[in-house]
């Protein structure tokens, strides 16, 4: 131990001695009280001797109790210290037995739960790095390869346009990945929203969906809208991200010639936004982790994505003070229901 730790242990020992001294003194006083209640009288000449005996007994009893408790405390302290050092060195498999006294057992339970959470975050981080590497490698390789082909002699105008289109699509993929990563990073450190204004929620949805027309046309998606006229006071750009991410997700996992419905209603002081598709749906395992950062249910990467879109949606809804519910069944589709509290300008 260093000097600081030695001082800490010494201070704790002194506190234990003092506490035990008070406890033993209280015990002696209790005995004295009981003796008096029983009518046993102590001769005045022996009062001083009796007090000295009581004081000595309390000191001895307090020291013994302090030694026992401090030894046990030191063992627990060293056990926790070793466990903390293991966690600090990146070992998240460490745990502390929960067979101590009540206080230590509760502490150990909280410690083990925290380490378990840290291990989960570390696993997600590793998975994210793997997924991110894959997402970066594929478009960069495509851009590099087709850029070389564009520089080659003897290619036709049709081939040149095709290669340029591929480069454009892949660069857009990279741009979307960068934007989502930066947005999620910004939202993670944000607790309040300052860019608020009164806007037309239904018009915002329609404007957001225009950005996805090309994707819907590529799969011949039938879009059904049922939008009430709703004015809402909040950050319209963030809620637009919610709409874009949810509908984009529905397109991505939807069927060719499939259906997507978007509904907006207002009732009893709440605004309800729902997005429903009849696509491939999700398993219960995927459904349980759908809002986890970096998680991708499609581990085969058959669909484009980076596992950030729904994490962004969840964070935005939390910032708005709302809630999001999701239901899905494999082969039948998925629906998202968002409930937002009505907000007025202040």
Account of the 3D structure:
This protein is 60% helix and 14% strand. The chain is built from nine helices and seven strands, in the order ααααβααββαββααββ. The strands form two sheets. The protein has a five-stranded mixed β-sheet, with helices on one face. A two-stranded antiparallel sheet has the order 1-3. A hairpin with a 3-residue loop joins strand 6 (323-329) and strand 7. The two termini are 56 Å apart. Mean pLDDT is 78; it is low at 299-303.
Q: Which oligomeric form is depicted?
A: single chain
> What value does the Rg take, in angstroms?
33 Å
- Strands of the widest sheet, in order across it, are 2-4-5-7-6
Please report which band the strand proportion falls in: under 5%, 5-15%, 15-25%, 25-35%, 35-45% or over 45%: 5-15%
Parts with pLDDT < 50 across at least 5 consecutive residues: 299-303
Average pLDDT, to the nearest integer?
78
Helical/strand content category: alpha+beta
Helix content range: 55-70%
Q: How many β strands by DSSP?
A: 7
Number of alpha- plus pi-helical segments: 9
The N- to C-terminal Cα distance equals 56 Å
List the helices and strands in order: HHHHEHHEEHEEHHEE
What general form does the structure show? elongated
What summary fits the major beta sheet? 5 strands, mixed
